């Protein structure tokens, strides 16, 4: 496998290769920041380390899967070339698929090349049930309410463009309501989970998203509600943010690791 992105999630994923949690080789790694590439190499014993490359197109040769843990721009750059080079892809920055042209191109390329695009559950719970409910054909509503401390939302394009200053907040405030498509574009580094939920359920246009900034909340909280002919589903995850990136929940990295681990497992539990 190869890794695109050596930040918070990429480092945790690399550690899981280094300590054998994922029973496969991490062959090559890429990040635009050479120091971050080197710090991932340093996670490994000499002789076992992946090769750091400074051109992402060098990730593909002889590799069966590329893990993207970088950002939405990276999904745009790496997904189609990976699939065309015979690699499956695991996308953390799934919100990039809100762009319907890219989404269609990715799906068409994967079908043509016989490759697989994996989107892990990430920082949310309940995709197993939402997927099964969607299969019944009468899943009617799916909504996600995400509450983060202002530090976990800072710098989002929507806040900057609308001149919303979160430092002035003294209580929980809804800062965004819209579809998952709109949320992914407005908060590209904060709400990739909405795209995973949409793809499991009723699609990004029909999935509704509310984002709450709460100065008294220290966790990244994701609450899902889904209703339909099968009944209703509600899940809440109160995630501990990663120490190196408050936007990113620690569980998101572990979810990707579990996905990669079970690709090689003989018993695979869950939908
Ligand atoms: N699906 C889910 O549940 C979740 C998804 N995420 C998403 O996962 C991704 C990774 O998160 P995280 O590890 O916390 O992020 P970090 O910012 O900690 O790390 C990302 C790394 O990738 C680099 N990078 C970003 N874009 C590119 C690019 N186009 N080309 C080369 N390098 C690039 C960054 O460099 P630089 O520092 O220069 O920007 C940085 O080193 C993000 O998109 C995040 O939004 C996060 C949490 C949950
Ligand atoms: O980690 C989280 O809580 C969710 C997140 O940032 C994302 O989906 O982009």
TrEMBL record:
Binding sites annotated in the UniProt record for NAD(+): 123, 192
Entry's EC annotation: 1.4.1.21
UniProt enzyme class: oxidoreductase
Catalytic activity reported: L-aspartate + NAD(+) + H2O = oxaloacetate + NH4(+) + NADH + H(+); L-aspartate + NADP(+) + H2O = oxaloacetate + NH4(+) + NADPH + H(+)
GO molecular function, one term: NAD binding
NADP recorded as keyword: yes
Active-site residue list: 222
Matches recorded under InterPro entries: Asp/hSer_DH_NAD-bd, Asp_DH, Asp_DH_arc, Asp_DH_prok, L-Asp_DH, NAD(P)-bd_dom_sf
Residue span(s) of domain Aspartate dehydrogenase: 170-257
Domain Aspartate/homoserine dehydrogenase NAD-binding: 5-120
Gene3D superfamilies linked to this entry: Dihydrodipicolinate Reductase, domain 2, NAD(P)-binding Rossmann-like Domain
Pathway: Cofactor biosynthesis; NAD(+) biosynthesis; iminoaspartate from L-aspartate (dehydrogenase route): step 1/1
HAMAP family on file: NadX
Miscellaneous notes: The iminoaspartate product is unstable in aqueous solution and can decompose to oxaloacetate and ammonia.
Family matches, as NCBIfam families: NAD_NadX, PRK13303.1-3, PRK13304.1
Protein name in the entry: L-aspartate dehydrogenase
Organism taxonomic ancestry: Archaea, Methanobacteriati, Methanobacteriota, Stenosarchaea group, Halobacteria
Encoding gene (name): nadX
